[in-house]
Write a structure and sequence with these properties.
single chain; alpha+beta; two-stranded antiparallel ribbon; 16 helices; 7 strands; extended
């Protein structure tokens, strides 16, 4: 029994849309992963890494192991990008544990473990540990055999070449790279070979590996000359075939005037369809331009409204001050109102002031110890205060950094129980990046509340118990210094705040 053409078409169309839906479900990125990629593009490594870790946890919880591994490997690379190799290796163990506990097939698990092992290989190459790197490469060979994946085989050849070139074993590197290039060239995947050569040269330049750059470029020139001959031969063969096909087609068409008429009619219909498509395209383009202009005006108006709103709130706060000064500041309610008014003015000034923040040289160890001493009388019995700061001088804005650390230490004094520990650390991450870390062994902050603690005016409060503007003000100050203030998601023994600064 044959299906009519219209029913066949509907059936094929339904199957096509089902395929698209399933494929979209498999490749759709979570909101956390998209935010992480955006932060990475902006150069905010700490935020991007934290979001990739959250995305990994979310994917792992939902059983989406492949997407989780992708985010986990990305978070690992952002760790050792800042030379945090210990944290990178530890996090890879978490990713591999998620793979092992998943319900994927053995081949799929091997393919995913290949990705984590490759990341470990990259770290050992950067650390110049040849024996460890060789061990990872051997593990990758075993995993490729289990996964039985042709793409992984090609990737393994590339990483082998990278390993040999990185440790000066040019002869072995040439042999492996030639094997890979010959394999892709035989399949006429010239663009892929060209891309691999370019990637290898770029990696050599990034890692300052002159031997890798020189050897790769030399091999690339030799391959380019040989493949140009192959391309010309392919093009000549294709042209000959096209000529033969055209001659056969012309002979067929000459045999029937009706066939010519059909072709002319089809071309006319195609021309009309193209013209209609151009008209529709022009209409859509004009509509897009109009909408874009409207959106720009709306954004400008919203920014102006935000500035007016901030100014209005600041003016209200300023007008309340004379009246509040006449009241008894010893009354808790009056003191709370005065503090709230002052905090509003500070927050407004930070949001509206575009002046550059002044920096000054500061000795870190006495600076941190002085701040710690301020809270010694405020902590509970048996609480230990620790300062882990080197004897060095760095450039900071003392006013803003003091305000932020003082607020974090006061909060830690409130929430750290008897016998607990409050610690302030300073870490130099790179020539232009440094961090202050304030940690305590208190009850911690629930994960669902962490994103909101830096946002002002989220809920109505009893001002005598706090106005909730302390951390938003600290966040604004950190951003004014071209840095950031965030909670360390990996610290589980209480709470740790990280103040990241760029100089």
């Amino acid at each position: 029994m044959t299906i009519p053409m219209n029913r066949k078409g509907l059936l094929l169309l339904s199957l096509f849309f089902c395929f698209l839906f399933v494929h979209a479900q498999e490749t759709q990125k979570s909101e956390l992963q998209q935010r992480a990629e955006t932060e990475e593009q902006k150069g905010s490594i700490g935020n991007a890494r934290s979001l990739f870790i959250k995305a990994f946890n979310e994917y792992a919880t939902n059983g989406q192991v492949r997407q989780g591994v992708e985010c986990g490997v990305k978070a690992t690379s952002l760790y050792y990008k800042e030379n945090l190799y210990k944290e990178a290796f530890e996090f890879l163990h978490r990713v591999e544990a998620a793979i092992s506990s998943s319900k994927e097939s053995a081949a799929t698990k091997a393919g995913l473990q290949y990705l984590t092992t490759k990341e470990r290989l990259q770290m050992y190459i950067k650390l110049r540990k040849s024996d460890k790197a060789k061990e990872q490469m051997n593990n990758m060979e075993v995993l490729v055999k289990r996964a039985d994946d042709e793409k992984l085989r090609n990737d393994l050849l590339y990483n082998k070449a990278l390993y040999f070139y990185s440790f000066g074993q040019n002869t072995e590197g040439n042999a492996v790279f030639k094997e890979m290039a010959d394999k892709l060239t035989a399949d006429r995947e010239y663009d892929k070979v060209d891309e691999v050569y370019q990637t290898l040269i770029t990696n050599g330049r990034r890692s300052n590996n002159a031997s890798l750059v020189a050897q790769s470029y030399s091999n690339y020139i030799i391959w380019k000359d040989s493949v140009n001959e192959l391309k010309r031969a392919d093009e000549i063969g294709a042209l000959k075939k096209q000529i033969a096909d055209n001659e056969a087609e012309i002979a067929d068409k000459d045999s029937s005037l009706t066939a010519r008429t059909v072709i002319i009619t089809s071309l006319s219909i195609l021309a009309i369809a193209l013209a209609a498509a151009l008209v529709v395209g022009a209409f859509v383009l004009m509509r897009y331009i109009v909408l874009t202009r409207k959106q720009k005006k709306a954004i400008k108006l919203a920014n102006e409204n935000d500035a007016l709103k901030a100014k209005f709130i600041s003016n209200i706060s300023a007008q309340l001050d004379p009246t509040l000064q006449k009241l008894d500041s010893k009354t808790p309610e009056v003191k709370a109102l005065m503090d709230f008014s002052r905090h509003i003015q500070t927050l407004s000034e930070l949001q509206n002031n575009d002046d550059e923040v002044l920096m000054e040289d500061t000795q870190i160890q006495p600076f941190c110890e002085a701040l710690t001493e301020e809270i010694r009388d405020k902590v509970k019995s048996g609480v230990t205060l620790k300062v882990n700061a080197p004897k060095m001088t760095t450039t900071i804005n003392k006013e803003y950094v003091s305000h932020i650390l003082r607020h974090l230490l006061n909060n830690a004094a409130i929430y750290t129980p008897e016998g607990g520990t409050i610690t302030i650390d300073f870490k130099k991450r790179s020539a232009h990046a440094q961090q202050f870390l304030v940690s305590d062994t208190g009850c911690g902050i629930p994960e669902e509340k962490r994103e909101d603690i830096f946002k002002p005016f989220l809920k109505i409060r009893d001002l005598t118990t706090g106005d909730g503007l302390g951390l938003p003000i600290c966040k604004q100050m950190a951003q004014k210094m071209k840095g950031d203030l965030e909670i360390d998601p990996e610290f589980t023994k209480g709470t740790r705040f990280i103040l990241s600064l760029h100089i």
